[in-house]
């Protein structure tokens, strides 16, 4: 060896030599109890319908939904987030507040299946229920009317709570939505129902496959209410507002392209921080793996680990059951 090469004294590689040592010193762990599985249920179908852009994900019948919920919790998954596709949509999203609407029925059925342990969550938003596909009701000018939407969210929160939902997840990015929902729940005697606020939710291209999963009617985009991807300081503001309004958990969404926001949220918030590994993140890994371009299992675990490492306590992921059963 040339005498110009100095022999290193400090050798970080020592702690990387074997699987056992790496396991001993790993800083971050993905654990099943912190994963939340999003589930889709569709009204009026008799068999589960696969979602082509989300291989492995289906639109459930009420019956197959119960089984999927049971299997997830049996595998150790910590929570479930329900989304529903109603048979009929209208401008106000009536089906969202109908006690016999598909989402409220699904909550009731899943709670009957898995018990009232507070881990059955529901997405609280109107986009699945409106015929125009926006997250709120439209004003005369054709724009989403923030304050009129708050009343609808309050009613939806009550319907979900009455169906037995333990955690509601407002995802519409209306100003004041957490306060409006908290007030409605409290007035309705549902002080125990928690709010998982989609606090920093970006107008993202990575929601593409989700819109297939809910047969989205949206023509256009949500940039007038969801956050603009260049902004990080604004995410801090959104998180602070949601905390002040009474959020019990704050969420950042999507996850992988917004890990800096997850980090900031985890340093700022004194409540648990969640991150949503969204449909497009899932689809990218599945599509690349299907072509043999990426090691699927390793990519799944690495992506979940990165989200946890950035500071998220909870991770919403379509891989929750499989990860809990087989990968962690
Ligand atoms: C709105 C909602 C969306 C997602 C979760 N809640 C869609 C949107 O904002 O357009 C996306 C989730 C995903 O892409 O996996 N109800």
Task: Note down, in words, how this protein is organized.
By secondary structure, this protein is α/β, with parallel strands linked by helices. It has one domain (30-327): TIM Barrel, CATH 3.20.20.70. 38% of the residues lie in helices and 15% in strands. The protein contains 11 helices and 10 strands. Helix 4 links the parallel strand 5 (120-124) and strand 6. The mean pLDDT is 97. Bound molecules: ligand PBG. Ligand PBG binds at residues 123, 125, 127, 171, 207, 210, 222, 278-279. The site of ligand PBG has 9 residues, from loops.
User: According to CATH, what is the class?
Assistant: Alpha Beta
Shape: globular
Order of helices and strands: HEEEHEHEHEHEHHEHEHHEH
Rg (C-alpha, Å):
21 Å
CATH topology: TIM Barrel
Tell me the CATH superfamily: Aldolase class I
Major sheet, described briefly? 8 strands, parallel, barrel
Low-confidence segments, ≥5 residues, pLDDT <50?
none
The assembly state of the depicted protein chains is: single chain
**How many β-strands, per DSSP?**
10
GO cellular component, one term: cytosol
Pathway: Porphyrin-containing compound metabolism; protoporphyrin-IX biosynthesis; coproporphyrinogen-III from 5-aminolevulinate: step 1/4
Family: Belongs to the ALAD family.
Catalytic activity: 2 5-aminolevulinate = porphobilinogen + 2 H2O + H(+)
